[in-house]
Every structure is written in C-alpha cells, then in structure tokens.
From TrEMBL:
EC number of the protein: 1.2.1.3
Provenance organism: Peiella sedimenti
InterPro entries from the UniProt entry: Ald_DH/histidinol_DH, Ald_DH_C, Ald_DH_CS_GLU, Ald_DH_N, Aldehyde_DH_dom, ALDH7A1-like
UniProt keyword Oxidoreductase, yes or no: yes
Name under which the protein is recorded: aldehyde dehydrogenase (NAD(+))
Pfam families assigned: Aldedh
Length: 500
C-alpha cells in the first residue's frame, strides 16, 4: 500500500477517499491526486439542513457541560491523530510540517477552550424597576450553524466555529473548501468516533460535511433552517453569502480578506522586526488572511531594514514542505501563482520596484513554487489596496506616526495590524481609539499567528465577525431577556396604569 493510502487508512477514511469519483483532492506539493470526497448537490444540502434541524431538537436539551464532554472527546481524538492529520494538512494545503501540526494544535486548543466554556455560558441578572420582579438575560441555543471554510486553514476554521457551536447547543453543517476535502473527511471521522464514545445522548447528524461548489454553499446560505452562517474566505465570497443570508434576515458571521500592515518606527528593534516580517509575510507562503502585506517603515531606517530583509529573503528555503528546514511551500495552485505574477506586473506598472523574489522557484515538479517578493512602492496604489493571496510584501515609507497610522487604516480591509517600536507613546497611540482601526492590533509581533483565546476577526471589508475566543460564543446563541413576577400584583413598567 502506498504511503498516502496508509495515511488515509490510519485516519479511517481509506475507503471513503478511494472511490475514484466525486471531488478530487490534488496535493499542491506535486499535483498528485490524493483521493476523492463525495460531491453533493443542492438537494443533498437541503436534506442536510433538515437533518441538522432535527439534531438540534434533541441537542439543545442536553445540558451544556454534557455537550462540553462531547467536545472534550473530540479533542482527545484529535490529540491521538495530531501527527497524521497535520501531515494531511501539509499534503492538501501545502503547509510546512510544523504549520500543519500547529493547525491541528489550534483545533485541540479550541476544543479545550470550548470545554471550559461549556460551564461558563454566563448570562446576567438585571435590576427590575418593578417590585417582586426578577429580570435576567439568558443565552439559549440558536440552531444549526453553517461553516464555510477556506483551503488555507482546512480544519482550524471549522473548529473555531464547530467547537463553540456544539457547546452552545447548535449542530454544525460544514462546507469545506473544494481544495481540501480529505482534511474535512478525516476531521468528520474523528468527530464520529468521539460521538460514538459519547453515546446515545448525542443525536445523529450533529456534525455534517457537505462537499460542493459555490452553488451548494449558496443553497445552504439561503436555507432558513440554518439561523447562522459563518463564512471565512474572500471578500467576494463573503459579500455573496452575506447578501443571501440578509435576504432572509438570517445572521452571518464573516471573516474575510485582510490587508495587514506593520509600522516600523525609528526605535524598533530591527533584529526582532526582521524575524517578525519573515514569519508573517512569508509563512504559509503568504496565504493567511493575517499575512503581512504592507510594511510601513520610517524613512530614516528604510534602507537599513530593507538590506536586512533582502538578505533574509534570499536565504529562504523554498521547496517541498514535507522536508525539514523548508520554510516556504507551494502556493495552493497554478491560479494562485498566476495571481502572484499578475499582481507583480501591476505593481511594476504602478511604479513599484521589485527588490527581491517575484519569480518562480524550482520546488517539486507539478507544484506552483514562487520566491517571496519585496516590492518598494511609491504609494498605496490599487494593487496595494487589494489582497493578493501570495507572498508579496509592499514597502512604503512614512515621516510621522499620524501618517503611518493613516496609511495603515487606508486599506479597505481591517483584519490585523502591528507596530514595532520601543516607544510607549508610539505603541499606545497605535492601540488607542485613533490608532489602528483593525480587529487585531499587536505591538512588537507580526499580524499573523493569533492565539485562539482572543476574539478573531476584523472590520470593514473583513466583515466585522469575531470567532474563536473571548465572548465570540455569543454569536452562536440566542439572547433572551426574561422577566419573572413573583408577587401577587401586576405593576407595569414606566408607571403605566391599566386597571380593569
Ligand atoms: C486565516 O488565515 O484564515 O492568526 C486565519 C492566524 C491564525 C488564523 C489565520 N491563527 O494567523
């Protein structure tokens, strides 16, 4: 048996993935077909919504801490397969090994977080103005949640949503990226093992995966049996989904494009800055929504910093992400490499100067490998304002901090941002209400690689949603204001009298 067949067997999807038909999974590493997943249509999507609704009827009656126990078991299953699932992420998404493993760790972490949360879905008690009345605010299960996820985090994004949804009492329907279906199959298999261990209290179809193209996602987004649609991906996709969901007055939670900047001030530790840039601009081959795309550097240090960065970029090992030492794997496909080439051509035509990289790298035959690019730009022209999902770092210079913050905030997206500085005044200004306008703002670390404990998401074209930590769970629940009269009278609020 081949190595890949063995891996799929260990992940208990050997049979499902070897049908030879449906959605084809091709590795971006070398173009090899890894296996297949079923391809569903709109009618099957509708049936999944019906099944999720009936699962909801039972699951919402299970006490939240018991629901947490199912997620605890899921976390256990994932710990057991971390190495194999991490390898599958590498094979399907092209991430280097440590990032593939890191992604599965992120899933395990959110499971732990959700287990704790299952005993902390706190509401409020409120002071009633009426005598012998109690008021409280309670969080109730909402209903099935649709999770639309992208190729670049083929399992973590599902887990931020599904782990929280499950403890909140909501079944999850998952529409993964067509590019990474086997990771979804393997994750679903792990969920099913956890559900089997949990026993009959877990209704069937608490977690389902629907494989399909955009039309299937649209059909699910239009389905009123799914009160919440959580979508991660491009702004174009998010806009389409949000409009469909809004047309039926459903709720959407959007985590869309980023165009994340780093401001480097004169007091910055340049050694640290170079390391911060490298991981965030080049990690995952520039295919994170939090990837660093704009470097806004004080004019007095631009040349010095650029020299160091060019040196660091020129020694970057690009190649097979399974190999130790490689830091830059392939782009997801040839289309992404084309977008990389097109963006660089546009940058040149807008006055940009490519300082390093920007060409194809050798890599492995059958994959799309590029050399990460640094491009000095005269200003924030059209190409800079657009998110190109590839390792291109646009460099701009500034004179004073207000100008740097204005450049940071001029992008139509508002996901992540950071400043490198040793000045408390600069750092705190960046973090103030007139500082960065993004959902995430960091000091002396890059914009990518967020921990699960914080709320994750951003403003403007990023969509405004918050997932993962903090109180993001509230999006998966229905807020109910409850008032109880424990007296014998019926006093009305606002002193209204209505004696009959
Ligand atoms: C994404 O790219 O869709 O902060 C999410 C990070 C990761 C998540 C990225 N924890 O880079």
């Amino acid at each position: 048996m081949s190595k890949i067949a063995n891996l799929l067997e260990r992940l208990e999807i050997g049979r499902a993935a070897s049908t030879g038909q449906g959605l084809e999974s091709r590795s971006p590493i070398d173009g090899q077909v890894l296996g297949h997943a079923p391809l569903h249509d709109a009618a099957e999507a509708s049936a999944a919504a019906a099944r999720a609704q009936s699962a909801f009827q039972a699951w919402r009656r299970v006490p939240a801490p018991r629901r947490g126990e199912l997620v605890r078991l899921l976390g256990e299953e994932l710990r057991r397969i971390k190495d194999d699932l991490g390898l599958l992420v590498t094979l399907e998404a092209g991430k280097i090994r440590s990032e593939g493993l890191g992604e599965v760790q992120e899933v395990i972490d959110i499971c732990d977080f959700a287990v704790g949360l299952s005993r902390q879905l706190y509401g409020l008690t409120l002071a009633s103005e009426r005598p012998e009345h109690h008021m409280r605010e309670t969080w109730q299960p909402l209903g099935p949640v649709l999770v639309i996820s992208a190729f670049n985090f083929p399992v973590a994004v599902w887990s931020w949503n599904a782990a929280l949804a499950l403890v909140c009492g909501d079944p999850a329907v998952w529409k993964p990226s067509e590019k990474t279906p086997l990771t979804a199959l393997a994750t679903q298999a792990a969920f099913e093992r956890a559900a089997a261990r949990f026993g009959a209290e877990a209704p069937a179809h608490l977690s389902q995966v629907i494989f399909g193209r955009a039309d299937v996602g649209e059909a699910l987004a239009a389905d009123a049996r799914i009160p919440l649609v959580s979508a991660t991906g491009s702004t174009r996709m998010g806009r389409a989904v949000a409009q469909t969901v809004a047309a039926r007055l459903g709720r959407s939670l959007l985590e869309l494009g980023g165009n994340n900047a780093m401001i480097v001030t004169p007091s910055a530790d340049l050694e640290l800055t170079v390391r911060g840039v490298a991981f965030s601009a080049v990690g995952t081959c520039g295919q994170r929504c939090t990837s660093l795309r704009r470097l806004i550097v004080h004019e007095s240090l631009a040349d010095n910093l650029l020299d160091r960065l060019i040196k660091a970029y020129e020694s970057l090992p690009v190649g097979d992400p399974r190999q130790d030492g490689v830091l830059v794997g392939p782009l997801i496909d040839e289309g992404a490499a084309q977008a990389f080439d097109d963006a660089l051509a546009q940058a040149r035509s807008e006055g940009g100067q490519v300082l390093t990289g920007g060409d194809r790298a050798e890599g492995v035959p059958g994959g799309a490998y590029v050399r990460p690019a640094i491009v000095r730009m005269p200003g924030q022209s059209d190409v800079v304002m657009r998110e190109t999902f590839a390792p291109i770092l646009y460099v701009l210079t500034y004179r004073d901090l207000d100008e740097a913050i204005a450049l940071n905030n001029a992008a139509p997206q508002g996901l992540s941002s950071c400043i490198f500085t040793d000045s408390a005044r600069e750092a705190e200004t960046f973090l103030s209400g007139w500082g960065s306008d993004c959902g995430i703002a960091n000091v002396n670390l890059g914009p990518s690689g967020a921990e699960i404990g914080g709320a994750f998401g951003g403003e403007k074209e990023t969509g405004g949603g918050r997932e993962s930590g903090s109180d993001a769970w509230k999006a998966y629940m229905r807020r109910q204001t409850q008032t109880v009269n424990f007296g014998r009278g019926l006093p009305l609020a606002q002193g209204v009298r209505f004696d009959v």
